[in-house]
Amino acid sequence: MQVEEQVRTIITPLLQDLAVDLWDVEWSGSRLRIVVDQNTTDNQGNDKAKGIDTETLGLVSRILSSELDAANPVPNKYTLEVSSPGLERSLRHPEHFLKYVGKTIALKLNAPISNTNFSGGELEAGQGDIPPSIASQVRFSGKLIDVSSSGIILQTEAGKKEVELEISFENIKKANVVFEWEDKKWE
What we know:
Layout: H1 3-17, E1 20-28, E2 31-38, H2 54-71, E3 79-83, H3 94-98, E4 104-109, E5 117-118, E6 121-122, E7 139-147, E8 151-158, E9 161-168, E10 172-177
Parallel strand pairs: 2-3
Antiparallel strand pairs: 1-2, 4-7, 4-10, 5-6, 5-9, 7-8, 8-9
């Protein structure tokens, strides 16, 4: 079992007891980053996002540090970092994307999208109604329309047109939520 999986197994029950959700675990050589968020699901299963406060983060950090020291899932000396996912949180797992259907996200792909489906049709560079420039892009932002077991559908602009891109999880190098300020009039 990999370090990240071992850490998840150890800390998930502890976080549940604290009414905190595990967002992500990242192990990179000498740094173990654990990203947590306030448990925001009400009794009906609705997500009521409100964020996590620094006092709770401190408590979580102390408890996890003690438990991880005792269980010793990390082979070497490491630095433990416990943080919130933030407003423009990283999306690394399918369940992350599911929470943000209908929201604006930004993506960086591993490879250009020349073989990606556009509204059900195959696009080859320069064909169809899609400008050729989109076929070579690796960065996109747009509205997350749907999530499946294999990938996402992203609505974005291609020139002056809206298109839907079907992108596999395997081709997503990096993704995050794009925070949008609400347009409220101050009185």
